[in-house]
Amino acid sequence: MITATRKSLDEIKNMIRPYTRVLVAGCGSCVAECAAGGEKEVAQLVSALSMAFKIEGGGPSLTEVTVDRQCVNIFLDELEDPTRSHDAVLSLACGAGVQALAERHADRNIFPALDTQFLGQTKSPGLWLENCLGCGQCKLFYFGAICPLGRCAKQLFNGPCGGSQNGKCETDSEKPCAWQLIIDRLDGLGALNRLEEIYEPCDWSLKQGRGPRKIEREDQQS
Ligand code: SF4
Ligand code: SF4
Fold first, then answer.
1. Whose CA is nearest to atom 5 of ligand 1?
2. What is the 48 CA–ligand 1 centroid distance (Å)?
3. pLDDT tens digit string along 90-149?
4. CA-CA distance, 11 to 34, in Å (whole number)?
5. CA–CA separation, 136 vs 146, rounded Å?
6. Which end of the chain is more exposed for a tag (fewer CB within 10 A), N or C?
7. Cβ atoms of 49 and 13 closer than 8 Å
8. Ligand 2 mean position, distance from CA 178 (Å)
9. Domain boundaries, the chain
10. What residues flank ligand 1, with Cβ below 6 Å?
11. CA–CA separation, 26 vs 178, rounded Å?
12. Which CATH architecture is the domain 2-118 placed in?
């Protein structure tokens, strides 16, 4: 999932202060899972903003709304009228959702309340860890389903740097060495031979350097 964290209250206040009516729009998927942009977080933010603007005097009126996904057009239909009846939108979606909403409303200011962070997993309640960079050419087969790109500090593709201590990364002793994890897992699976296979170098041009990526599926097009 995509993870995100909320911007500071001051940064958010500075963005919306000049407006009269602001729609505060949440997203019920990834950013709700990471407790940054769901219905509950919308309510918390509106309450904090209302209090802050009350203390300093002035500030816009705020309306709360949350849709299932702001990155999927059909759910943005639900925001059509509310967006039109407000002079700005503060979106608690990830960067993809904020831009999708802005694309539909060329005449409205759509502001991000969150900083989008990484692709990752919910490791435990309150803990989210990065584990995939979306490289576009998954090679987890070779690495025992442990990604050296998303989890090795140096994104080494062909083996460890040799600097780990007691299974911990040399760049941060709090973090496990991804290559130690890969080797231990493949060893446990009796599949260390996979590391002897010659696999294609990581084609970074799939991820960057050619502008936004696109997936087009004719079978999904109505
Ligand atoms: S190889 Fe790693 S970065 Fe690439 S898609 Fe697979 S998990 Fe993601
Ligand atoms: S110690 Fe391990 S995780 Fe850290 S940079 Fe070296 S190979 Fe990567």
1. 138
2. 38
3. 999 999 999 999 999 999 999 999 999 999 999 999 999 999 999 999 999 999 999 999
4. 21
5. 16
6. C
7. yes
8. 6
9. 2-118, 133-208
10. 132-135, 138-140, 147, 149-150
11. 35
12. 3-Layer(aba) Sandwich (3.40)
